[in-house]
User: Fold this.
Amino acid sequence: MEGVGGRLSRGKSAAYRGVISRVEARAVPYLARYMVATDLVYLMAASDAGSPDTPQRRELLAVLVDLLPDGGELITTGLDLDLLTLREAWLIDRVGPDVAGHLHLGRNRTESLKQYLPRLFFRELLAQQRVALLRLITTLRRLGEEHRDVPMPVYHHLQHAMVSTLGEYLLSWATNLVPHVERLDQVDHRLDLAPSINNERPELKRLADGVWPRLGFTRVARLRHQQHATEDQFFEPMFALEATSVAIARLAEDLRLWMTSEFDLFALDDSDAAGSSGLPQKKNPFGFQAIIGGASVGAGRLAAQLTTSIAPSEGLESAFQAASLYEAATDAVSHTVFIEEVLDSGRFNLDELERKAYWGEALMSEACDMLVFEQNVPFRMAHHELGALVRARLEGGDVPDVVAALEGRLGRSLDLTTDDVVAVLDSHRIPDFNWQRASVTRALIELDEFLAGQSDSAVVSEAIAAIEAEARRRVAG
Assistant:
C-alpha cells in the first residue's frame, strides 16, 4: 500500500517520501481522531442511504470504532504516509484488501484533509480555548475584586509613572479578553459549514446528508468550488488563537518582570517554575518565556499560512504543510491554560506593591491635575514648572517656589502654595478619584453579566462520542 493506485505502477521513491510523505505524516497525531470519526460516519450514512449493509462494512465498523477516541494505532504506526493512505494501509493489514476496499465511499483529499478534518480540529480546539479563556477571565475577575484597594505602581514605558490599583490592572485584562471569547464564537460559526459534494448525483447527496449532521455541522456549502475557492478554515481560526496568545504574552511579559528580585511584585508557585541546571538559588520563569516565544512563533506561522494560501485555488499546499499550523494552534491553548494556573497559584507581593506605588514622584501627575483643573493653570505651563520641581527633588537641590513662578507668569494669584503641592507628593495617599471605584464596580458587574451568559460548547467532542456510541450499537447488532 505504497500509494500505488490508478495509473501508477510503482511505489514512492525515497525522494518523494522525503519531500511530501514525511511532511504530510506529521499531521497524523492531530487529525487521526477526526479521520476515524468521519470514516465511521460515512460507513453508517451509506447504510442509511440505501447502500447494502454488507458484512464487510460491519467488519470495518468494528475495527475502526476501536481506534476512537484518539486515533489509536494510526498515530504510532511509524509509517511515512498521508492520513488517507495510512488508515487504508492499516486496515488492509488487519482485514485484507477486499474488506478495506469498501471504505472509500467517494472520499478524497479535498473533502477530508482540506475541509472536514481541519474544520473538526479547529472547532474542537476553539471550544477548548473558549473554556480556558472563560476560566482565565473568571480568575482575573476574582483577583481584581479581591485586590481592588491595593495600590500599585504604573510602569509606563517601563518607567515608574503613576499610581493605580492592582484590582484595576487585573480587571482591565479580564475586560479586554471578553472580545476574544466573542471572536472564537464568530469563527466557530463560520467553520460550521460542511463541504459540498462534487455533483448532484442523488446517491452522493443522500450519503452527504447522512454525514455532516452527525459530525456536528448545521450548514453545508451549496457549490462544489466552495471547497477550494478560499482557505479561511486554516487561517481564520489561527488568527483568533494567535490574537489571544499575543494578549496573554503581554501579560506574561509583565509578570516575568515583576517576579525579578528588582521588582519583587509577584512570585510564581514552585510548580509553575523551573530550577537552574547550574545555579541553585535561581527560580526560572520558563513558562512565561515559552508563552512569549510561542506567541512570536504563532505570529510567524499565521503569516506563513496567509502566504501558503496564495496558490491555485484547487491546490493542496496548505494541507501538505498543515502539521506546523496545528502544532502552533494547540500550543496557543496551552498558553491560556498556563497563565490562568499561574495567576491562581501565584502570589502578588501586596506590601511591596504598595511600598513602590509612590516611588519616583509618582503623584506629580495628581499635583499637575490639581493645578490645571482646580486652579485653571494651562497644562503645558504647569507641566514645565512641576518638571523643574521634580528635577530639584531628585537631584537634592533647593525646591523652587513653583506656585510663585506660575503666579508671575499668569499675572494672578493661585488658591494654594508650593507647600500644598509638595504635600501631595509626600502624602503617599491616592486621591479618591484615582481609585476608580465606580469604574471598577461597573467592570465587575459587566464581567458578571458576561460570565453568567456563557455555557460550555463542545459540539465536536459530543458528536464524536455519539458517533462512537452509534457505531458500537451497530456492531453489536
In short: The longest strand covers residues 159-165. Strands lie at 151-156, 159-165, 266-267, 347-348. The mean pLDDT is 91.
